[in-house]
Amino acid sequence: MKNITVSVDEETHRRARIRAAEMDTSVSALVRGYLADLTDGKDDVPSRASVDESEAERRARGIRDAIAAIIADGGGLRMADNLSREELYDRDRARDEARQAAAAENEKRERG
Prior knowledge:
The protein is mostly helical. 66% of the residues lie in helices and 0% in strands. The protein has helices spanning 10-22, 27-39, 48-52, 55-72, 85-88, 91-111. The chain is elongated, with a radius of gyration of 24 Å.
């Protein structure tokens, strides 16, 4: 295996180490994978913009997209979506729904 020396500024090096840690790998492994993809002619090699996006930035973008979708869909709940007084205080139904949700969550945990 050949060694390659690459010079990068301190901030890029710091962000690369953080990103590698988030991915449970090393900076060398990230560079090795990037170069392998690049030389294999893969069209989906990430651009600089997608590599530089941190986890926090990705989450913030996801939240902004979700809020934009809610606003585009009418901005929230409609009166027709509200529960009637009887439905609101139907405790038996609420307990059944809670049990079903808990059972589904337990089943997910057992599978995953």
